[in-house]
Amino acid sequence: MSNDFFDSVFQVVRLIPKGRVTSYGAIAKYLGSARSSRMVGWAMNASHSAKTKVPAHRVVNRMGLLTGKHHFSDLGRMQQLLEKEGVVVKKDQVQNFKKLFWDPSQELSL
Predict the structure, then answer these.
(1) Is the per-residue pLDDT at 99 higher than 50?
(2) How many CB atoms lie within 10 A of CB 82?
(3) Which ranges in the chain belong to alpha helices (H)?
(4) Cα 94 to Cα 108: distance, rounded to the nearest angstrom
(5) What is the pTM of this model?
(6) What DSSP state is assigned to residue 17?
């Protein structure tokens, strides 16, 4: 696992606008490592100790599920942070996921 990869993930996640979400896979694809979505997840787990804040709550799985919620200070924290930004979450799933989905491959240029 490369710290450089984690740093690249953190940089992308910091660009996700408030009230929007993206997926582990979309970040991996944007970084040229389409098969590394699990490593993006590991980076999100490690992001809580990053020196500069990483809005890890904005990264969900490809179905809009809050699969990373277990890595926050408490189980409801990820949902609270999303709802504070206007994202509706029901049964651990982002509502209007397609509308709120932020694709770094389309939003950012390498």
Answers:
(1) yes
(2) 23
(3) 3-13, 24-30, 37-46, 77-84, 97-100, 104-107
(4) 23
(5) 0.93
(6) P
